[in-house]
Fold Oligosaccharide flippase family protein.
Amino acid sequence: MNPLKKLAGQTAIYGLSTIIGRLLNYFLVPLYTYQFTDPAEFGVITEFYAYTSFLNIVLTYGMETALFNFSAKSDDKATVYGTALLSLLLSTALYLAAVLWQADTLAGLLRYPDRADYVRWVAWIIALDTLAAIPFAKLREQQKAQRFALLKTTNILVTIVANIFFIGLCKWAYDSGTAGWLAWAAELYDPAIGIGYVFIANLIASGLTLLLLVPELATAKLRFDVALWRRMLAYALPLLVAGLAGMVNETLDRVLLKYLLPPDIAMEQLGIYGACYKIAVLMSLFIQAFRYAAEPFFFSYYRQQEARELYAQTTNWFVIACSFIFLGVMLNLGWIQYFVGAKYRTGIGVVPILLMANLWLGVFFNFSIWYKLTEQTRFGTYLTVWGAAVTLALNVHWIPRLGYMGAAWATLACYGSMALLSYVLGRRFYPVRYDLKRIVGYPLLAVTIWQLTEWMPALPFWAEFSFDNALLLLIFALVVVLERHRLRGPLPACRS
């Protein structure tokens, strides 16, 4: 099979759990923003999940990628797996004990002195997800995409059902004073928990997922090779720093909005930004699905002669797909915006900026495979630390002046500059002949087409919807005609 088609198939399977599943999860946004009409309440969720993103990086400390690297180069894969698993098990236990012990203190530091329960719930969510990370990585390494997708989809569906039950049913029954056969639902709802039911739903799903991974955990040979662990740690720690810096780029804006804006508007602005950020979910979900499939895919082909040509073509198709996602969302934003409550729609202007920012984050991932393949992971640290510095500087400068729009522009500047720097460094250490005309041209074409449609006179909804999506299909057909020859026949040998 053509390796690009194989990668596309793997991405599609992973997308079953990420894109399709998370799209279902995306429909929880209306539930949250219509049930909790005060954006400040949604701001609580936005803030806590920003912290969760940081801690997920810290507690896995690059061991997933280390597993891919050392397993691909070792004949004793069981020892590699057991060493990584035991390492995370010990570190996660220490983390959980420390947080539960100091939950009240941490709640006070976060300005939630009466919400230590939120801290405890989130701590358990992070711990359970961390323990599941290595078994999930093993499924990816073994290319068991179907089981991976099944478990991830189950996690998402349980999260959705639990949210609908607690917030959709129980809260609705409580607020409406429903008597009769739904009185039991009203009694289950505690208004003091409020938005915290989002954490409870997540905790239930994370616990169930870990239980479903018991077969992968039970079959692991718990061998801990100290010498191997040290080598894995040396490989992984730069990725930890890079991952932390990357998470700064992705989520620090949501933390800084709380502390850089006046207290009377900060949580409201944070809630609006967090809700509108969700509208850009299609781009980030596609990138996530692609990364699940692409990372082990890139490692499996790195010894082959045509590998560099393969990486270049993969990046071309990735950019084309992301450009269509951008265009599809923006041409349909007129009705997509109603997925968030009325008070949240004032922030809709961040959507195109965040979509394009995430596109360049995906390009950065493609460009940066060189330092993982050549085991020069320190460059990942340098690049993401650079991005973190850009993020911090621009957010501190722009948020007080522009609010959440400043945060969005800082995100775009960060990812764009990281992609450029990674390309320049890659040309020196692992040159790949990327087609820059396509990589830059397709996103510019998407933005241009969207802007041209914005200048058109207003049309009735049905006419505008029909015209915009017919235009999207026409452009798609033209691109397929122009690009289809690139998937025909065997890949050419690498000329780099």
In short: Confidence is low (pLDDT under 50) at residues 489-496.
